Amino acid sequence: MRLVKTFGRGAKAASALIETLEQRGATNTARVEPVVSRILTEVRKSGDRALLKYAAQFDGLTKGQALLVSREEMRTAWESTAPKLQAAMMVARGNILSFAEAQLPREWTICPMAGLQTGQIVRPLGSVGCYVPGGRYPLPSTLLMTVTPAHVAGVERIVVCSPRPAKETMAAAWLAGITEFYRVGGAQAIAAMAFGTSTVRRVDKIVGPGNLYVTAAKMLASAECGIDMPAGPTEIVVTSEVGCAAGIAGDLVAQAEHDPDALAVLITSNEALAREVAAEVKLRAKGNAIAKQSLAEQGSIFVTATVREAQELTNRLAPEHLTVDAVSDLKWVNNAGSVFVGDHSPQSMGDYVSGPNHVLPTGRVGRVRGGLSVMDFVKVITVQEYTDKGLNQMGPHAIALAEAEGLAGHAESVRARMNECD
């Protein structure tokens, strides 16, 4: 990891690096957009023919192999899974379910004045597609993280797409009750779910993390299909003054091993801690080729002049995962996907069993939203009802505003109901 001071002789280099990191999302996806756009266009035009071609080329689908993973395959995978892993999956699913139930928005009604009731009703989306990466590692945890909140929301049709689905992922699908699971990934899976083919019917919204190709495909398809967020290569920022160097290094290496494009950053005004963490990272990354590559190419340690500067830089970067020293730090955190507090909260716990979702915003999207939640799977629909008395009291105000805007039809629609709908 490179160590950069934001003050003194290192200030200029630090400023340039920070500006580069602030542009990371748009810059990264732009370099794969031409390829992704071509795949999306071909799948949209040729449907299954293009989907099968790309699934064979990129996903290892063999000739004659069905795209659809059968429930029997999922059941067999579950039954052949070690009891220890079965128990871990059930604990994880239980915590994710409890968290999602607590997040679920409620229906309510208020009466702001006599004769007027306003409120909201909550309805699930009709169908969602959950993308589960399957390249370097099996990710049953991501299947549980995407599917479980959709179940809590009441989504009727849940589709899962994953390339080369591992036994563990199929076992998680069995546990989650999935019936529509396709062994296809990449931009071609996103295209199939967004536009539909003869085999894969289109969905209302696509959620889940993925590599740059998947992220770019989601963004390009978002004009016609809802998406959760850009959830691309993993990002971690640790902002610490007094943290445990071994624990910080462990988190940095753990998140870096996801992807060579992963971003790992430590921000501190404590130079001694910075150097101690750098040494620990070097030691712990030995033998972990992907983490070693990621940390060498994207890993950075920023030593700031003050604690306040460290906090401000953290919010500028708006990281996917953020670790801070204490609960008191939460008061300055404005931009982050998910926050981990203290020496005893490794980020890997959030990846698996804590309950809050591990599908989180990357590319500084943490400035505008948090992680995937049950709210991504519902629609909050507003409702309003006037009585005759309420309309006669409030109607003149609406008429005045409509006439000020030059919208005579709006004003007249109010008069009609005031005068002719007794």
Please report the first level of CATH classification, the CATH class of the largest domain: Alpha Beta
- Tally of distinct domains: 3
What structural category characterises the helix and strand content? alpha/beta
Residue runs with pLDDT of under 50 for 5 or more positions:
none
Number of helices: 17
Question: Would you summarize the structure shown here?
Answer:
The protein has 17 helices and 14 strands. The chain is α/β, with parallel strands linked by helices and 422 residues long. The strands form 3 sheets. A 6-stranded parallel sheet has the order 1-11-10-9-12-13, sandwiched between helices.
Description:
The protein is α/β, with parallel strands linked by helices and 422 residues long. It has 3 domains: 2-29 and 233-370, Rossmann fold (3-Layer(aba) Sandwich); 32-104 and 113-228, 3-Layer(aba) Sandwich (Rossmann fold); 387-420, no CATH class. The chain is 48% helix and 16% strand. The protein contains 17 helices and 14 strands. The protein has helices at 11-22, 24-30, 33-46, 48-58, 71-79, 83-103, 140-153, 167-176, 186-195, 212-221, 245-256, 271-284, 289-298, 307-317, 347-352, 388-404, 408-420, and strands spanning 2-5, 108-113, 116-124, 127-131, 157-161, 180-182, 205-207, 226-227, 235-239, 263-268, 300-303, 321-324, 338-341, 378-386. α3 packs across α10. The longest helix has 21 residues, at 83-103. The termini are far apart. The model has no long low-confidence stretch (mean pLDDT 95).
